[in-house]
Amino acid sequence: MNKENPKAVVLLSGGLDSATTLFVARSQGFALHAISFRYGQRHAAELGCAAQIAHAAGVVQHQLLEVNLSALGGSALTGASAVPKHRTDAEIGHGIPSTYVPARNTVFLSLGLAWAEVLGASDIFIGVNALDYSGYPDCRPEFIAAFERLANLATKAGVEGTARFRIHTPLIAMSKAQIIRTGLALGVDFSLTSSCYDPQPDGRPCGACDSCALRHKGFAELGLTDPLEK
After folding, report:
1. What are the structural domains, with CATH classification, of the chain?
2. 226 in helix, strand or coil?
3. How many CB atoms lie within 10 A of CB 193?
4. Which residues, at least 6 apart from 5, have a Cβ–Cβ distance to it below 8 Å?
């Protein structure tokens, strides 16, 4: 990337979706500024993956912010309650599960927006998905559209007209299989990613949570084996 490339802030968790989103942004010619969050998640192993993915993508800068959402509670991902496992596709697709973290994407996008304004970037990428997902309300197109409106109303750059912020969601209408196919075409090394909500102490996926199930299904639909399962 040279200095002429427009800057983009990419939310990077270290999972399959965010890794693919990072490489989509790279393919579109953006100078990449990745941002990750340690928010008290039980699956903090993903942050090591985020660092490896950022390096592989050649990001200009990778920020890791501490945002202790576990202090607020309300989620199996940040508290002591059990992560749901061995759920059927029908169960995964119905209702909002206990792994929902209250306002997480609102908080993360707000911090990404703040950094974008400082960087002079108008583009923010997030790997939300409204098809193969676990019912999270902050992954819906309606939420993204509303946040984009907010971004242009709540910032100096937006009010003064020096920037028009855009929230990019390249994966929002894709199935997990389509996301994996896209990532492979762009050169994503999925062995560097971590999607599990409740990984083992050594970082290996549990293979039974909703995220593991959706990931396995995506690779299986392509006739492929997840590199984390080999």
Report:
1. 7-229 (3.40.50.620)
2. coil
3. 25
4. 29, 30, 31
d(CA 102, CA 225): 33
For the chain, what is the mean pLDDT? 95
Q: Give the separation between CA 27 and CA 168, rounded to whole angstroms.
A: 13
Dihedral sign from CA coordinates of 97, 102, 106, 109: negative
Evaluate whether 64 touches 96 at the Cβ level (below 8 Å): no
What's the burial of 86, exposed, middle or buried (CB within 10 Å: 0-12/13-18/19+)? exposed
At residue 15's C-alpha, the angle toward residues 14 and 17, to 5°, is: 125
**pLDDT at res. 133:** 61
Instruction: Say if residue 71's pLDDT is above 90.
Output: yes
What global pTM score does this model have?
0.96
* Residue partners of 182: CB distance under 8 A and separation at least 6: 20, 24, 171, 174
Is the CB of residue 188 less than 8 Å from the CB of residue 58?
no
- Of the candidates 80, 36, 40, the residue with the CA atom closest to the CA atom of residue 193: 36
